[in-house]
Every structure is written in structure tokens, then in C-alpha cells.
Amino acid sequence: MADFHQNGNIATIHNLRTTTDEDLTRELVTFANTRKISLILPSLYSELEGEALPNILKELAQVPYLHRIIIGLDRADEAQYRHARDFFSVLPQNHVVIWNDSPRMLEIQRRLNDLGLAPNEPGKGKNVWSCLGFLIACADTAVVAIHDCDIVTYDREMLSRLVYPVANPNFPYQVAKGYYARIGSGKINGRVSRMLVSPLLIALKRVIGDRDYLDFLRAFRYPLSGEFAMRTSILPDLRIPSDWGLEIGVLSEAWRNLAPKSVCQVEISDAYDHKHQELSPEDKSKGLSRMSIDICKAVFRKLAADGTVFNEEVFRTLKATYYRSALDLLDSYYNDARMNGLYVDRHQEEAAIEMFAENIIAAGHVFLDNPAETPFIPTWNRVHSADPDLMADMLKAVAADLREYGI
């Protein structure tokens, strides 16, 4: 049985196992009559060849309340785009595959480049941002959910539980963040959240002092989950990073733009697992090494925007404080795992902590060496102001791609 603890910063919507997905779905169908619900799936073409996505589509095909599914397809050529169209055609809902690398979409990118408004680098953040722009241009959705395409334990109740808090018109929530226990194959997973983000937030509080923003982030049980639901009214002013800092960036925007009572976290799964990234300690441009740097940069940028002063001494102190905090948490995770019959490889966990500690310094150097860097993709309100025709032209580009490159 789940607990029913509330942390006092944001609302936590638990799964007390006292209702069913059928009950939630019936209510969501009713809500969707007047508050249309859409889903965004940011996908690499390679994920079409994995084990997770076929089951995700099988589950989604049974969801009756979705108005539209938007698939953002990255790293695909023409033949792969055609295959993706066929692959996603099993979905009975209105759906669209946006070929982000098509000549027409690259022309949209060129226009953004000419305006100085293009995302700085490819990645999940850019993909999600483009899909959000498409959704805003459609102007027919009240609620949007986002989740990854590599969830190997996916079932449709995850989506029902994710969207319910923001779809229910009697609830005040503008943003819902999914959470769950990351366990699988007899062990505790989620190293970046457990061994980087949690001890980093503890260390930051010790080094720079109390900040409401840090308390806000610490209130989330799984701040790096890729599952969000939002009311679409907040999307035009949403600023997000284009890199692996997307999840922290969205939470930071919720903190900046919304009252805490408008944000909740919701338990969406008892057993969640997805594709695991390599640690990649030898290459900071790949795997969890790059992810950890991007996440640290996202947190540092937000704190700096709120007036925190960073320098070399602060980052050196932060590294040492983080390291001690992470080792202390490792003891807790190890004991928790043992009592639940799960496995924790202390050597591998400590190796990850050592890499994350070094990457705190690396992220600090990037932050200090690039004071003029624009950390966020521009808002869609700004894009529309600079080029009022671009969003409509994006809709036309996607439609033209669908006509020209048929299955």
C-alpha cells in the first residue's frame, strides 16, 4: 500500500490502489468532450527498432480519450520516414508524424536561424519544442501529455494517471509531473536522479543557503521523469533547454510562472523501466556523462537567474559537499535495496558518484566560460512575434510532407 504523505510544497497525487484505470478512463472521456487531450511522443528513428515502442502503440491504441497524437521523428531519412508513417499507422486516433529532418522542416529551421531564434543543438528538447509549436498552431487542445518512447513497462494506465490531474476541470493544476520507483532486473535503477540530482540539491542548500527553488525541486520524488502533462494555456510562454536539461527546465518554468498550488506530482506506475544510458566516463559528450553536465548547467542557470553568484570557489566547495552527500545517500539506497531483496553494486554506484562530482566542476566551467550563452529555446510567443507566419507555415510543411512522402 502506498503512503499518503504530502510534503507541503506541491501536491502529491498517490496511487492508493482504490480505483481502476477503467474508472479514470470513463472520467477522462467525459472531460475530453470539452477539454481535448493530446499526446506528444518525441522519438528517435532507432526507437522504432527497439522492444518498447511496439507495446506502447498497442496500449495507446486502446485509449479512447486522446484527440491527437503528435510524433516528433528525429534522425530519419526519407525511407525511414515512410517506414515510420507505416509503423505508427496502427494508431486509430488522429495522429501525425513530424519528420524533423525533411527539406521543408529544415527550411523552417533556416528561418529560425536567420531570426536568431533556432534551438542551439539537436536533442529531445528541440524535438519537444517543435512538437509544442505544432500543437499550439493547431489551436484545438486544452491538455497535452508528453512521455518517452523507450518505456519497456508501459501500460495505458500510466497515461490516464498522468493526464487526470490537469484534465479534471475541478482541479487547479496546470502541470502534473509523473513519478514512480525505478526498479528492474532485481535492482534499483535511476542513477542520475538518485546519485546526482538528490545529493546535488542537498549540497547546494548547504553551500549557497536556503532557496525556495531548491525546496521546490526537492519536493519532487522523481524530478528527472520524462512524463509531464500540462494545460496548453501555459505553452506559448514556456522556456525550455534544448539539451538533457529538459526535465529540470520544465520544472524551473513551472516554478517561475506558476503558483505552487498549480503544480502536482502524480504516481503513475508501480514498475517502471526504460532504456538505460551508458555511464561514458571517458567521453563527456555521450551517455550519462553528458546528461549530468546538462542537468547541472540547467540548475546553475536557474539559480543564477534568481541572483545566486557562482565562482570557482563555490563550485569546488559544491563538489566536495556533493561527494559527501552522495556517499551518505548511497548507504541509504543500499540498505533500502537489501531489505527489499534488490541489488545495488556499490562499486558501480561510487564510480558514478566520482564521475558526477567531476562533471559538477565541468558544468561549472561551461557556465563561467560562456556568460553570454542563451540557455533556453525562445518561447513560441517570441517566435510568433518575430515571424507571424512561421507556425502556420510549419503546419503546411508537415501536411505537404504527409502528402508527398506517402506510405
TrEMBL record:
Keyword Transferase: yes
GO molecular function, one term: transferase activity
Keywords: Transferase
Protein name: Glycosyl transferase
